[in-house]
Amino acid sequence: MNPLEYGVQFLKAKLDHSNFCIWGYDYYKYKTHLIFDCDHQQSEPTKFTDFRSSECGYEIIKQQSYVILLFTYERGNQIAVCIFQESLLLTEEEVKHAFHLMRVFDLEQTIQLKTQEMTTMVDSIRSITSSLHLDRVLENIIRNALKVIPAADAGYLMLYDPDKERLVSKAPVGFNDLIYHFSVQVGEAITGKVFQDGKGRIFNSRQELYAEMHTNHISDQNLSYINRSSNYTEGAICVPISIEEERIGVMIIHQWKIKRKLTEHDLNLLQGFAGQAAIAIQNAQFHTETNNSLQEITALSKKLTKKNAQLEKRQEVHEILMNISIRNRGIKVLVHELKKMMNRTVVFFNGLENTFYCPDPGEHPQFSMFELKTIFSNKRQASHVKVFSELEEMFYLYPIYNGGVFLGCLIIQTNGSLSKSDQITLEQGSSILALELVKRQSISTIYNRKMYERFQELLTNEDPSHFKKLGKEFNLNPSSYWMISILEIPKHAIDLQYLDIIIYQLISKVNAEFPSLEKLIYGFYNKIFLLISLPEPADLKHITYKLKVIKQDWERSDNPMFRAGISNAYMGLENIKKCYEEANKTLDYLDQRASTGIIQYEDIGLNRLFLNQSTEEIEQFINETLSPLTTATEKNRELEETLLTYIELNRSASKTADHLHIHINTLYQRIKKIEDLLGIDLRDNDDLLEIQLACHLKKSQLA
To answer: Using an 8 Å Cβ cutoff, are 241 and 157 in contact?
Structure first.
């Protein structure tokens, strides 16, 4: 039984045969569709626009002859349950239960959307590569771009003309002929700026669009052309079109009416499509150049034949590799096919998961993960590298990027320069591998969100018998010892644009270090949550040690620093909430001290009593207790050091005198002076406890 059927059965049981129907609103397609109708009660679709959208929750809307349960989910999708009764027959808990049942259905719809997006992307790529006529290819690119981003209404390309030193408008869809007069210098307006710096941009209001155009000094003439060539524009996405490091133009799509906000996901999809569009444009340009050359100079027939062969090779390689990707046969099969096409040793380094793919069973990578990331930390160009072992060997390193993110590298053994055929194979292969890695990351993002919701269910569960059911569902033994570690990358330590990729990489590394442990791991925003089963509580020290090793390796590779809080280990899955709270408190302790260390909850010691106290309150207590000793005079600083040392050495006069290199009588004189200044008697238990506590907190501050 699928999640929708569970939801329908639940509503049928609770509504006591009352008729109802279920309507859904697809945020990305901005369409309303009927999901279920028990008795054809409502032929007209629910108007979601009539209702206020709540943030990640539900609303109960009472109409004249029926009640609507409106469920709103994270990605903007909505579900309306129309119950044909004048009053609601469900309790608040039952409404919440229905909300969560429908959430699972919504998640399945999201996964189907991702699959559909990938299918649309593949179909669009096939469409734009089906012709080699440049004008037809350019028009196909824009029409298919609007299929990839269905929230958009119009668009056009701008290709750089080196003779005019301007970007020239091409293949408009939804614009009148005035758009052909719109041409910009590099750096001018939005399109010129995207071409200049290679960074895609999203705009979700007309004000943003015009502010950006004026910021980049659009000319009055160009502003007039763009205003008179289209309808009223309310949103847009603009991305660069590049072939390797060379930008050849930009692609921009417009939204005339805001159906939904354009997102980073739309930007990434369009950027991926632009990469394929660049190949199609280059193919078409090669084809055009070939035909022109054939007409002009027959003496170049050999060269033209070679160029045609390269085009055929490009098409052949692209088709073979794309078919492998469509069938989800995996990265290893793609790398093996590249090896077969080039007839060379080929190894692929997956930079997202820090793994190597070697098609030959006995083959080993000649480069370490650290070496590859170091090589491409400051440059993005492919390069030849010599390796000296028993024999001198030459390798060609071909990096793969998605925007500014290093995704991986193809390593090809070679005796010299690569043939044009091999270069084409590498170009096509790297593009398909990039799509494969982006697809994996998208699936991982959906998984993390789902696991976050299920983990919250574990934390909020109060029924002991329900833990057995949840444990079986998660494949976790409810009666084992359990601990939780929360890993956090400080927000200031990373560009939030690449946060999902960094979290994905760190999860992959943690998984690789704990391959055989019974565990649950997922990422959420800038944190990773790690739930691990232990045979014995003593094994917690080994987990802590392994996490510290992971941290050293991770940061040695120039990755952003992270901190980790680790709970104690407790028997039984029912203690998971306690583990979660301890790990969070430990993380707060590290955060208060701006530390990026890894510690266990038990190591906080006495300081755990002050986790909920503000820094200001602690400082006030220290100042009130020790203030006569904290003045700027040399004598008082000497007394403060004496007191801190005396308390730290458990009030041993001989040890304190030795440590401070003073005579013991001098120490007694200082102690007496301290008691007089502070108005205390260290033989009094209450005074002693207050001084010990103040000294401990002072030491913690200094640490």
So the answer is: yes
d(CA 260, CA 29): 9
The pLDDT value given to residue 194: 93
DSSP string, 431-481: HHHHHHHHHHHHHHHHHHHHHHHHHHHHHH---HHHHHHHHHHHT--TTSE
pTM: 0.41
Packing angle of the helix pair 664-678, 653-660 (nearest 10 deg): 100
pLDDT at 562: 86
Radius of gyration of the chain, Cα coordinates, nearest whole angstrom: 33
Do the beta carbons of residue 564 and residue 544 sit within 8 Å? no
Listed in sequence order, the residues at least 6 apart from 351 whose beta carbon sits closer than 8 Å to its beta carbon are: 372, 373, 400, 406, 407, 408, 409, 505
What is the total residue count of the chain? 703
Nearest C-alpha neighbor of 58 from the set 19, 11, 101? 101
d(C-alpha 498, C-alpha 456), whole Å:
25
Give the list of residues 6+ apart from residue 555 with CB closer than 8 angstroms, or none. Answer: 561
Main-chain dihedrals φ then ψ at residue 182, nearest 5 degrees = -80, 105
Q: How many CA atoms lie within 13 A of 187 on its CB side?
A: 1
CB atoms within 10 A of CB 530: 23
For 200, the 3-state DSSP assignment is coil
For residue 346, the tally of other CB atoms under 10 A from its CB is 27
State the pLDDT at residue 231: 79
* Residue with token string 């001084």: 691
- The token pair that represents 525 in the structure block: 């925003």
3-state secondary structure of 130: coil
455 pLDDT above the threshold of 80 = no
Provide the pLDDT for residue 402. Answer: 74
Q: Determine contact, residues 526/602, Cβ cutoff 8 Å.
A: no
**Residue 542 and residue 535: Cα distance in Å, rounded?**
12
Rounded to 5 degrees, what are φ and ψ at 45? -70, 150
The number of beta carbons lying within 10 Å of the beta carbon of residue 69 is 22
- Quick one: angle between helices 206-215 and 189-197, nearest 10? 70
State how far Cα 410 lies from the chain centre: 23
Per-residue tokens: 236: 């847009």
Structure tokens at 86: 């004048």
Q: How far apart are CA 505 and CA 596, in angstroms?
A: 18
Q: Which residue has the higher pLDDT, 199 or 653?
A: 199
Model confidence at 551: pLDDT above 80: yes
Strand order in the sheet with 166-173: 183-184, 166-173, 154-161, 246-255, 235-243, 201-203
Measured distance CA(510)–CA(487) in Å, rounded: 10
241: three-class secondary structure by DSSP: strand
C-alpha 379: how far from its chain's center? 23
